[in-house]
Design a protein that fits this description.
Elements lengths: L8 H9 L14 H9 L2 H15 L8 H29 L3 E6 L2 E6 L8 E5 L7 E12 L1 H4 L5 E3 L4 E2 L4 E13 L5 H11 L8 H31 L4 H15 L4 H18 L2 E3 L3 H7 L3 E4 L1 H5 E7 L3 E2 L6 H10 L6 H10 L10 E6 L4 E5 L5 E5 L1 H5 L3 H13 L3 E8 L15 E13 L3 H10 L3 E5 L4 H10 L8 E3 L6 H10 L2 E3 L3 H13 L4 E5 L5 H6 L2 E5 L4 H6 L2 E3 L7 H36 L10 H20 L11 H29 L4 H24 L4 H20 L1 H4 L6 H42 L1
């Protein structure tokens, strides 16, 4: 057992040597080894390695140039993710959990990872239990919903167990750690989840990319094998030409930089958010932010500053000694939230005259705390509408003006009955109303501008608070939230149907329980909304956990910061527009860049498949496609992916990408196929045919890049111009190594005709694809109506 003085330095050292230390949880970022492994050991890198070996066997060394692109992609990916890891790990250390710990008779603050078995620690409301423990002193209520799913708070008294992963909903206690590190309950659950293959769900963009990559990966082997057989056996081409054609077709089908580009864009997003003191605990949430169309916010600590100020009490009857009652009630208080601290500062600054004989900590379910000082001297403080019950009308004349001013109001009453053994509802008829205790929070200065931004972006705001609905409505109006006058009291929304109807119709919700907050988030999600939840309190934890993106204020409850995907380390609400804009930048730019990659993949796949039925081989060499990909896809996609983009995300990712890529892919395919066929009929050599096809594909790529860069900015104009110059200059200066040859007269005429038709063919396919997309959209709307 531990002495009342806590562990000595020697005892701490001995336990550390025995491994009885509370090892930190796994970092939210990958290890260096995992980052290197994930970027090097990929399916497509393996494919590229096999293709390089095939080229090496036929001594086609120059055509192995695509390996340089693979190496550069891998190095860039590793470097960016390592940079993001360093940034996020640094922020994680800053936001590390600190716990009050008793050692050698002195209370100090220790990081949770420095604690050892048998340490004596103190937990207050909002603190997450960092290791299994047993209560030594004090009373508290633990919420174990994060580990058991049961939202009801469980009373904890001396001798009872606290399980890691739970958090205190109310009260304060001293406890001794019994199981730490890997032996704790939370870590055992985490290990089991990892063994079961549990992963954080990916967003639509990443899921779509995964499906695309898997689909292409499955086609590579059969298409490659069939093409090699056809060229080497059916066409009797020499082995070197057959291998080069097959490798070129497969290289064209592989979106080698797309997945890397996505990882880099997300990593850069994490770094940019970190510069604004936003801790990203899940990279996938950056994508989710781009699609948020409903933002749920708590009132206190989000719309308003978290620091509360208590005003003068409003007496309800001629109760003598009101100041003495309040001084006794709050003099011995150890406040663990802003409301308690404000009341303590206002009424309990001096020494308490009496110590309570019994106390019930504040309970979020029944919304009161209570203290007994002797016979007939039991006092309760809590929410007036909850405590008063059917007697609410008696309070209305004094209460209504305070609520209209947006103040939070508590009721002080004497309770003439006996307090229940377990926290539960009190009989209103046993209450003697003594005074109203008004408090207020100041609206954050930047809140109106922040909410105006979301209104311009078409994002709905829902204010979900545990305070009185009229007070919440007043504060929401002061913050400039549209529809703040449409408020509802959640106590009246007793069934799922009423709650579901209110979720769409009303803007402000008051007297919302933690479970109702969670249900409101779920109802909005079920209606097709992407929901972000911003909160800072214990009562926000369930909603933060279930929201598509949970955002916590670091100044709030520790449990909220632990469960949220994003943590605002400076609790700066005005940073939220930048957070949402970063998500939009990532997904919009990746969507645009992905269309460039898919142009090449669509055209290469169609050309490879059609080549299986034609008496000619694949017209490209790997090095020729590498030049085209570098100047029309690789360089521009990385530049475009990192530029600002605050447009709202609309539609589904893969549908949008295919819509943008199909016209270019079909144009490339048709023009190259025609050029190859006509060149073959004109009797041009294989090298001449490859030259015509290469310059055709390069020109189509430049035209597609021109469309993607519109509307022009100085950066986009410079990008398009430099890529165009690099492409054609490379074709001329590197002609010898690219195996491009001077064309005879009929070859030049063919090339001129094909290039002149390229803008018109691209425009025609664009109109055709747009019409097909509009028809499909109209069909889906009609189908939904009939169904």
């Amino acid at each position: 057992m531990t002495s009342p003085q806590g562990l000595t330095a020697a005892e701490v050292a001995a336990r550390r040597q025995q491994g009885k230390i509370n090892r930190p949880p796994k970092s939210p970022t990958k290890t260096v080894g995992e980052i290197v492994r994930d970027n090097v050991c990929t399916y497509f890198n393996l494919v590229f390695l096999v293709l390089a070996v095939m080229l090496a066997l036929v001594r086609s060394w120059l055509n192995m140039g695509f390996l340089m692109v693979v190496v550069c992609n891998t190095v860039i990916g590793v470097a960016q993710q390592l940079r993001a890891k360093h940034t996020i790990d640094a922020l994680t250390l800053v936001s590390a959990r600190k716990v009050r710990c008793l050692r050698g008779g002195t209370w100090t603050e220790c990081l949770s990872e420095e604690l050892v078995q048998d340490d004596v620690v103190e937990f207050a409301a909002g603190d997450q239990i960092v290791a299994d423990a047993v209560v030594l002193d004090g009373e508290a209520q633990a919420n174990e919903s994060l580990i058991s799913g049961e939202a009801r708070a469980v009373a904890k008294r001396p001798g009872e167990e606290l399980r890691s992963g739970s958090f205190l909903a109310a009260g304060r206690c001293t406890a001794r750690l019994t199981h730490v590190g890997a032996e704790s309950y939370a870590n055992r659950l985490t290990d089991a989840a990892r063994r079961d293959g549990h992963k954080v769900p990916k967003g639509e963009m990443m899921r779509s990319l995964d499906k695309l990559i898997r689909g292409i990966g499955l086609m590579l082997v059969p298409v490659g094998a069939a093409l090699l057989y056809k060229q080497y056996v059916a066409l009797a081409m020499d082995l070197r030409s057959s291998v080069e054609g097959t490798v070129a077709a497969l290289v064209g089908m592989i979106p080698e930089g797309l997945y890397l580009l996505t990882s880099v864009a997300l990593a850069v997003g994490m770094i940019r958010l970190a510069r604004r003191r936003v801790l990203t605990q899940d990279m996938n949430c950056i994508e989710t932010l781009a699609r948020v169309d409903v933002l749920c916010v708590d009132k206190t600590g989000t719309i308003t500053e978290s620091v509360m100020v208590a005003d003068d009490p409003v007496p309800l009857r001629g109760q003598p000694g009101l100041d003495d009652i309040l001084q006794d009630y709050y003099g011995a208080e150890q406040p663990d939230n802003d409301t308690g601290r404000a009341l303590k500062e206002r009424f309990g600054a001096g020494a308490a005259a009496r110590q309570p004989l019994r106390s019930i900590p504040f309970n979020t379910a029944y919304k009161y705390s209570a203290k007994t000082f002797g016979a007939g001297q039991t006092y309760v403080v809590g929410a007036p509408d909850v405590l008063a019950g059917d007697r609410r009308g008696e309070l209305a004349p004094a209460l209504a003006p305070l609520l209209a001013q947006g103040r939070r109001v508590l009721l002080l009453a004497r309770y003439n009955g006996e307090l229940p053994a377990e926290p539960g509802p009190l009989a209103p008829e046993q209450l003697v109303f003594l005074a109203l205790l008004p408090l207020q929070n100041r609206v954050r200065p930047d809140a109106p501008e922040t909410f105006a931004y979301f209104a311009r972006q078409g994002v709905q705001i829902k204010v979900i608070s545990g305070d009185a609905p009229a007070a919440v409505s007043h504060v929401a109006a002061a913050a400039g939230i549209a529809g703040a006058q449409r408020w509802a009291g959640a106590a009246a929304l007793t069934d799922e149907g009423a709650l579901a109807r209110a979720a769409e119709e009303w803007t402000v919700f008051g007297r919302v329980t933690p479970e109702q907050k969670r249900k409101l988030v779920g109802i909005l999600q079920a209606k097709g909304h992407t929901v972000a939840m911003v909160g800072d309190g214990v009562n926000d934890v369930l909603a933060l956990k279930d929201a598509d993106c949970g955002i916590a204020m670091a100044s709030g409850a520790q449990a909220a910061s632990q469960i949220a995907q994003l943590v605002l380390l400076d609790s700066d609400f005005s940073v939220l527009p930048h957070v949402v804009a970063e998500g939009r930048r990532v997904i919009n730019n990746i969507q645009r860049s992905a269309s460039l990659f898919l142009v090449k993949n669509i055209f290469s796949l169609l050309l490879a498949l059609i080549s299986l039925g034609l008496p000619v081989g694949y017209p490209f060499q790997p090095l020729q496609l590498s030049l085209i990909a570098a100047v029309t896809i690789g360089l521009p996609s990385f530049v475009l992916a990192l530029e600002p983009n605050r447009d709202r995300v609309q539609g589904r990712f893969m549908h949008n990408v295919l819509h943008a890529a199909l016209p270019g892919g079909l144009t490339d395919f048709l023009l190259v196929l025609l050029a190859q066929g006509i060149a073959y009929s004109l009797g041009l050599s294989a090298e001449a045919r490859a030259t015509v096809c290469t310059l055709t594909a390069l020109t189509v790529g430049v035209l597609i890049l021109l469309r993607v860069c519109r509307p022009f900015t100085p950066l986009r104009r410079a990008l398009w111009g430099s890529c165009t110059v690099l492409g054609y200059a490379g074709a001329v200066l590197l002609a010898r190594w690219l195996e491009l040859v001077p064309l005879p007269g009929r070859g030049l005429a063919l090339l001129a005709a094909v290039l002149a038709s390229a803008p018109f063919v691209l425009g025609g396919f664009t109109r055709l694809v747009d019409a097909a997309w509009d028809a499909a959209r109209a069909w889906r709307r009609a189908h939904r109506k009939t169904s």
